[in-house]
């Protein structure tokens, strides 16, 4: 029963994250990227810190260092993603961000020489093809927004990789709290450096950024951490990759975004690449049988 509730919880996370692409697009109409990120991560830091830190024993240097690395990767991912969103559509932004799942095995290979399976290699080739169909212009150039979003996907890939490495060694509550604090501090520094401290947001902008901070950040990170205790990591990755599908769905329904056949083809190929790269077939079945 817990496993099925956990699967439902992860699906809920993807729905919320999918809505985050639309909320970010709406917030950008009256706020700058770093204004949105500063408020978003401040809310996440306050809520996760308030929940995690009371009663917690002394912090260790190693887990603080790990949380800072995760926070830097998270900041880079979100910063490039939301800046890229200014120059592309929410649906393309969502699917290009989803390529981070394909990148993770290759980061593991480059850093720890972990073997990349055939599915991962085929998935990477399919992802590149999907990105080309979805994003390349007639002269085979990549649009500014799409290029920035892909770089943001690299940041998210590092965050996922680092989380996988550190979550097994250190306290998850501490990692989450330090990660959010780091992302907030970096966002605030860029906000001041860009001279964007004066905020003149619309009511819709404030509602959007509150959704991003309270629901799409604080709630989802708590929910994701709790649910992944009961769901195999491979299945969890496949479920979470559906964020891009909901991102596109909300863009069509709420923003009346027009979808072309070329966009559909590119999105389908990218989604197939994400699912294939995370499917481990018989190896995963043996692992689950051993657990039971």
Describe the protein's architecture and organization:
- This protein has 292 residues and is mostly helical.
- The protein has one domain.
- 78% of the residues lie in helices and 0% in strands.
- The chain has 13 helices and no strands.
- The protein has helices at residues 2-27, 33-52, 61-84, 90-97, 100-112, 118-135, 144-166, 172-193, 203-227, 233-240, 243-255, 261-277, 281-291.
- Helix 2 (33-52) runs antiparallel to helix 8.
- Residues 281-292 have low confidence and may be disordered.
Can you summarize the main beta sheet? none
Instruction: List the uncertain runs.
Output: 281-292
User: Approximately what portion of the residues adopt beta-strand conformation?
Assistant: under 5%
Query: Would you tell me the structural class of the helices and strands?
Result: mainly alpha
The value of Rg in angstroms is 19 Å
- Gap between N and C termini, in Å? 15 Å
Mean pLDDT: 84
Number of domains: 1
* Helix proportion range: over 70%
Cα shape: globular
Count of distinct strands: 0
Instruction: Please work out how many helical segments DSSP would assign.
Output: 13
**What's the order of the H and E elements?**
HHHHHHHHHHHHH
Protein name: EamA domain-containing protein
Family: Belongs to the EamA transporter family.
Transmembrane segments: 34-54, 66-87, 93-111, 118-136, 142-162, 174-194, 206-224, 236-255, 261-281
GO cellular component, one term: plasma membrane
